[in-house]
Amino acid sequence: MPISINLENKKALVTGAGSGIGREIARWLARAGAKVAVLDVRADKAEETFALIAAEGHPSKRLAFTVVGDARDDTRLVDMIREAAEKLGGLNIAVNNIGMMGPLGSAPWLQATPEMFRDVIDQNLVVTGISCLAEAKLMAKVDADTVADRVIINVSSGESTRPSPYMAGYGAAKAAINHLTTTLAVELGPLGIRVNAIAPGTTLTETVKAAFTEEHYLQVVEATPLRRETEADELARLVVFLASDLARCITGQLILADAGAHLSRTRPPNIRTDNTN
């Protein structure tokens, strides 16, 4: 018999869904039948994602809507998640996709400042942790018949699995998200809540395009076994699988979708700089 994934009647929220990986995740969840809340700091980008979902033939007012706010504001972040759950009529799937490399992007450690390091930790680990907390509290209020009914999926990074020259703060924050994921899987498992993380390889989002030189990008691709970048829609398909009944026994896992990049040798990107202040 044919196998299909059907997320009809599931309620999902995706943070950072205004562009890149988050946008594709929101679109693919909607394609699978889920009702999706598109959360982003930029109203215009969130509306673009909403419009794309609507244009694919979904009854948009039923299957998607936007929630806008700055996730760096702890109170607003919690309010956004609560607002999304209220509009969805519950919460089965939460995808935490907020993250950034920091003001320096890809740069040597000696160019970092304490403020920059704290900023990259806050906007990756802290935002993800607060999101997980708000989502788990909402999910814990509902009795589930099966483990597959509720799942939290954190977007980590392949940089968390190996040394990350010139991305030390980012790699450290994402590695901490991996640990948070496994710990929450243990704590929330008895409540029927699964918690997993996915680790993308180099994906040409707006942030990555801004941070990488063409030379650095070519170095990364050349060192990857499949000799290519990771596509955003490939990550979205993985999220749909993890959110489905097909993955009902999977929790506490970090799944790499990186074209084999974790198997490659680590070397610093070829960035010249004389500034060590």
How would you briefly describe this protein structure?
The protein is an alpha/beta fold and 277 residues long. The chain has helices spanning 20-31, 43-55, 60-63, 74-88, 114-139, 168-188, 206-211, 214-222, 232-243; strands spanning 11-15, 35-40, 64-68, 93-96, 150-155, 193-200, 254-257.
Q: What would your notes on this structure say?
A:
- By secondary structure, the protein is α/β, with parallel strands linked by helices.
- The protein has a single domain (11-203, 231-258), classed as 3-Layer(aba) Sandwich (Rossmann fold).
- It is 43% helix and 14% strand.
- The protein has 9 helices and 7 strands, in the order βαβααβαβαβαβαααβ.
- It has helices at residues 20-31, 43-55, 60-63, 74-88, 114-139, 168-188, 206-211, 214-222, 232-243; strands at 11-15, 35-40, 64-68, 93-96, 150-155, 193-200, 254-257.
- Strands 3-2-1-4-5-6-7 form a 7-stranded parallel beta sheet, with helices on both faces.
- Helix 1 (20-31) packs across helix 9 (232-243), helix 4 packs parallel to helix 5 and helix 5 packs parallel to helix 6 (168-188).
- The longest helix has 26 residues, at 114-139.
- The N and C termini lie far apart (63 Å).
- Mean pLDDT is 86; it is low at 270-277.
